[in-house]
């Protein structure tokens, strides 16, 4: 089966063409010598200006200064190495990098005579007679070298990476000393101190890389090196095996050391490999025109596969931002860091547990009579793997007593046998909205009694229910029913709070409408979508979108939402309501029984119930999308650019009529939209070049995406596919050349067996080709597209866009696709 790439064609291509080195500033020096230290705002700049070394602050809000190396020629300050990772200075003016009397490079602060060096290259036994210098090289490597011959390197930063592995560096193991070079993630985005996540070559001597947590728990492995790739990372094979690859990558198993190296063949390519604060390894390339680092590859792919990502007493939630949520009865230990995506410190109790006499036995013999701590049941969680005790307790009640009787016990779980946990609960994952299921269970978390009885919290109701259930089952049913009725009543009451024609709902209502987000329909661009039903007479089905990463404030959000609510067109999805509560933002849409277009276009024949879409239906779908977009662009009060046209955002009702979804969301998400889009998986292949070149975005960007989509509607396949032999096939290039050859018949989905109106196919191909013209001005408006597809205007033969020509050459595919992750 063909593999689909997360088509990063355009940024890759354009980025490649547009990367240009700025002229270097000749005035800067690249060397520290004895008697000429570096201090304050002074910097070292490498010879050709690529890297700079100096004092910097990791965040605007930070009080701390660090000595570090960063890219000197890109518009975003990106640190690649830090000397004093866990010893910041408060004032760079009183700190200096210099050569000490023993020949080492040192970082001093304050009174030099008295205070010890904050950081030193620490080379022992440098001959007193030789003088040394520190030099910053164009590779980003800082070396301590002999002053008379700088090829004699005594120490180099490439042997002491921080979180970033730069091209030209080696990551490996010294066989004589057993020493391994590790990449340690930063502790937080504003704190370069070594965090808990690290990447290293297996210290046991195999050729696999391991990601570990706190020096022990391994949560990801690359698999062993096979000569041209890792067993666990098949997609990286293309890097090393393809002669056209931009990268050289390999493993050297020598006598004294074994290591991996990687390098870029073209110096203009700015690329880095790092272990991120999120515990994932990331391979990024700078695209100057986008002003952003584009993510090529990351592992582990699922954020929640990172061990203990959320620290203690928090659960990881996949595909949500933030990825971590404190358990009930706990709050973030460091709220600010939490917001910045650093969750390692976890959560702390709202209310302390009762003091209990230390030394209490596990068997409950010394159980405190007064201890009235309680337990709160949390279902659908991946449980911590570090249970401290397994007690052969017969019943759940015995298990509870065993935990209560143990001062250190913080939770238990009973599933036949009784599991107890001490201390912070780590590595929990909320599995309620993931398909994994299997490894999850219910954990009973110990909380102070007051936490369990505090009023106004829904979950207390559930606790109460559990208790009742144990006693009288019949009563439970009654309570359940009344709770259900109560919830429905409340939703009804809320629905009277109407904004324009929209329902404003609370988060609790949303939970009730979606049955606590239990039926996930899909993961869209801006958040996951869940099925639900309104508590009205007909139980209207709805789709609830949980937005992620919304930066907008409440007021602006409401304003945007009510604008979207006023947009009504037969080919646009109806917004019915919304929820904006705290940081939570949700949208309620009408539900479309036939789901999104991608399922019908690309759905494998093995998935039952999905017949191949007929040509007539496809043509109507193409027209419907065009009409919907035309309305958005020209016919409503405020012109809306959709920004994210792709098959996943085209929904189909029960009669396969088109409803374009997700319009207006680009604006809702706030300013960072281009960044969001260009780094989003599965979106990039549809993006117009102007997203990358940074020129203003107009409605013509949607026209481009529409053209890309139209090609897929004709062919019934993704535009970018890998052939079984490994080469990549870019369908729009093929279609454009067949169009010129007068052979449009062969572009149509083979599954249709030629049942297609060839006149319409030709018209659709021409329109698609016009839509993806390089220059915005050459692309038609959506109104013109509608007329063309309706046959009201003639369509002339389009010129083949430059981009299609470039990507029509298989050599370029290899160059631009090698190593991209398959999805
Ligand atoms: C500098 O050192 C390198 C490596 O030790 C050596 O090959 C080279 O000949 C030396 N150059 C001079 C000018 O001494
Ligand atoms: C390395 O060796 C130790 C001790 O033999 C073992 O416990 C550990 O699991 C090994 N690690 C890997 C990744 O194989
Ligand atoms: C990390 O490991 C050290 C010992 O190596 C231990 O003292 C510390 O508690 C661990 N950290 C966490 C968060 O468990
Ligand atoms: C890598 O090779 C070693 C022995 O050479 C083996 O023990 C280990 O399981 C292999 N790792 C993987 C992930 O296959
Ligand atoms: C009970 O839970 C433990 C720990 O999570 C797990 O290892 C075990 O397989 C479970 N047993 C059953 C019967 O589900």
Automatic annotation (TrEMBL):
Where the protein is mainly located, per its record? membrane
Q: Which residues cross the membrane?
A: 461-486
| Entry keyword set | ATP-binding, Cell membrane, Disulfide bond, EGF-like domain, Glycoprotein, Kinase, Lectin, Membrane, Nucleotide-binding, Phosphoprotein, Receptor, Serine/threonine-protein kinase, Signal, Transferase, Transmembrane, Transmembrane helix
Report if keyword Membrane is assigned. Answer: yes
Q: Where is the Protein kinase domain?
A: 515-793
* SUPFAM superfamilies, sorted: alpha-D-mannose-specific plant lectins, Protein kinase-like (PK-like)
Q: Which Gene Ontology MF annotations are present?
A: ATP binding; carbohydrate binding; protein serine/threonine kinase activity
What residue stretch is flagged as signal peptide? 1-26
EC numbers:
2.7.11.1
Per UniProt, subcellular location reads as: Cell membrane
> Which catalysed reactions does the entry list for this protein?
L-threonyl-[protein] + ATP = O-phospho-L-threonyl-[protein] + ADP + H(+); L-seryl-[protein] + ATP = O-phospho-L-seryl-[protein] + ADP + H(+)
InterPro entries in the cross-refs: Bulb-type_lectin_dom (IPR001480), Bulb-type_lectin_dom_sf (IPR036426), Kinase-like_dom_sf (IPR011009), Pan_app (IPR003609), Prot_kinase_dom (IPR000719), Protein_kinase_ATP_BS (IPR017441), S_locus_glycoprot_dom (IPR000858), Ser/Thr_kinase_AS (IPR008271)
Q: Which family does it belong to?
A: Belongs to the protein kinase superfamily. Ser/Thr protein kinase family.
Name the UniProt record assigns to this protein: Receptor-like serine/threonine-protein kinase
> Which source organism?
Triticum aestivum (Wheat)
